[in-house]
Amino acid sequence: AMAAAAAGAFSLREVLGAFQRCVTEQREVLLEPYLSGWRGLIRFLQSLGTVFSFISRDAVAKVSLLERHCGGGQGQQYVSLQSMVRHELAAGPAALRARSDSGCRTVLRLHRALRWLQLFLEGLRSGESRTSVVCTDAYNASLAAYHPWVVRKAATVAFCALPSRDAFLEIMNVGPREEAVAMLGEAIPYIGDVYSITQELFAQHKLLDLP
């Protein structure tokens, strides 16, 4: 049973590898490793129980929507974030804004959640505050702005019940605590790089507020 559980378990090493593969020499963000990194992050959220289910459920839906785009008839347009933006903007900004299932809108939702995860992991790595404080601060600096009050309220109450930093570092599945901290130090810049390239791309094309 242990091995079966481990197969679906979160591995920080896999997430690091995926985000490492994400960015090409031309600074394009490849969607396949991006989604693979997200699948790992979702496993991380799910391994923490129901606390984060309001974020992980949404992320699961968004990842599978993007997988459909990548695997569909227009799949070659969805190789990178840059090619996706070019392709979807070709129909014009108004047409893009009207679509609730566009790749751009879907990535934007994941992008906002990625910022929260980046800040949260950074806080876990530095270990300067309790995990509930780290998580709440990260949430307030990122996702909270996009959530209705009732969700924000529920989230901050849920964060109070988060396990200790040591428990989190154990969930990372990379061995002793020091190794987990070291690997977070390696992973966070890659996640940050993907985040900032996406942010710049979306800002450039005025896509940061897609409804």
Automatic annotation (TrEMBL):
Q: Where in the cell is it found?
A: Cell membrane; Cytoplasm, Cytosol; Endosome membrane; Golgi apparatus, trans-Golgi network membrane
GO molecular function annotations of the record: ceramide 1-phosphate binding; ceramide 1-phosphate transfer activity
**SUPFAM superfamilies assigned to the protein according to its UniProt record, in alphabetical order:** Glycolipid transfer protein, GLTP
Q: Does the keyword rRNA processing apply?
A: no
Q: Name the predominant localization.
A: membrane
Catalytic activity, reaction form: N-(9Z-octadecenoyl)-sphing-4-enine-1-phosphate(in) = N-(9Z-octadecenoyl)-sphing-4-enine-1-phosphate(out); N-(hexadecanoyl)-sphing-4-enine-1-phosphate(in) = N-(hexadecanoyl)-sphing-4-enine-1-phosphate(out)
GO biological-process terms attached to the record: negative regulation of interleukin-1 beta production
**Domain Glycolipid transfer protein: from-to ranges:** 30-173
Q: What are the protein's UniProt keywords?
A: Cell membrane, Cytoplasm, Endosome, Golgi apparatus, Lipid transport, Lipid-binding, Membrane, Nucleus, Transport
Membrane topology value: Peripheral membrane protein
Q: Which GO terms describe its cellular component?
A: cytosol; endosome membrane; Golgi apparatus; nuclear outer membrane; plasma membrane
Q: Name one Pfam family in it.
A: GLTP
Q: Which family does it belong to?
A: Belongs to the GLTP family.
Protein name in UniProt: Ceramide-1-phosphate transfer protein
Protein species of origin? Edolisoma coerulescens
**Name of the gene encoding the protein in the UniProt record:** Cptp
